[in-house]
Amino acid sequence: MARTRFDLCLDAVLRHEGGYADHPGDPGGATNLGITRKTLARWRQVSPWWALPKSAVQQLQRAEAARIYRALYWDASRAGQLPAGLDLALFDFAVNSGPARAVATLQAELGVQTDGIIGPLTLAAIGSHVARAGAAGLIGALCDRRLGFLHRLGTFATFGKGWSARVAAIRAAALLAASSAASPSKPDQWSSIMDILSGYKTYITAGFMLLAGLAQVLGVDLPALDSGSAGHLIMESLAVIFLRQGLKGDIARA
User: pLDDT for 123-173, tens place per residue?
Assistant: First the structure.
């Protein structure tokens, strides 16, 4: 089964999230696979969130984490409706800073209402921008704005180096995805010609036989075909052509 854009984007996100961590300077507290204790408690409907033990965060498995990422970040930011590349840039931003902030930042770049919700107007603005200038510029601008937001955070001195490296990696992966989507690979021209010819090789062979027979009728000496008379060559070529047509008709009716 082919992997979806969500699967591919989640792979990219998880490459930066890592396993269990409980850094005293991280406001998210205990985190595993990028899912904080508070987020996991909300997902499992545990209230208050601190009633969820840290051991539950440590034991979180990828399958459940993927469901959380899809519902709370991918679907919430409507990344699945965006062009390849832009989907990853927005999704990763949403994971780090929340879907509303990520979407509002994208809307600010597009010049539409910054309500943090991707609706028909925002989707139309994205479609118009991508059709006019491609997705690469929008991806770069979104990543630049994201870095600007991160620089203004009080914890940038502690986590800024890692954040900056992550945004750079996501930018590169997103631009590559956008480029691949904009330039689908073209089939090899020679292979296409050979595929076409292979379907007609019976006709080609019969055509040569017919031409050889006619050449002999006209008195052209073809030593390589001395064993076959002109009449036989013409009749055999016509028989081959009609036989192939008959087989094609039988197969079509089968």
Answer: 999 999 999 999 999 999 999 999 999 999 999 999 899 999 999 999 999
Compute the half-sphere exposure of residue 122: CA atoms within 13 Å on the CB side of its CA.
19
The Cα–Cα gap between 152 and 49 comes to 28
Q: What distance lies between CA 83 and its chain's CA centroid?
A: 9
* Residue 21: φ, ψ to 5°: -150, 150
Structure token digits, residue 43: 């997902």
For residues 84 and 37, give the distance between their C-alpha atoms in angstroms, rounded to a whole number: 31
**Cα maximum dimension of the chain:** 101
How many of the other CB atoms lie within 10 Å of CB of 182?
14
CA distance to 10, 38, 50, 51, 54, per residue, from 45 (Å): 24, 10, 12, 11, 15
Q: What are phi and psi of 36, to 5 degrees?
A: -80, 165
Q: At what angle do helices 99-110 and 86-97 cross, to 10 degrees?
A: 130
Name the nearest CA neighbour of 89 among 171, 181, 180, 5: 171
User: What is the DSSP-derived secondary structure letter of residue 35?
Assistant: E
| 183: confidence class by pLDDT, cuts 50, 70, 90 | low
Do residues 85 and 181 touch, judged by C-beta distance below 8 A?
Answer: yes
pTM of the model: 0.70
CATH entry 3.50.50.60 includes domain 5-182: no
pLDDT confidence band for 207 (50 / 70 / 90): low
Share of the chain residues as helix, strand and coil, in percent rounded to the nearest 5: 70, 0, 30
Give the residue extent of every domain in the chain: 5-182, 189-246
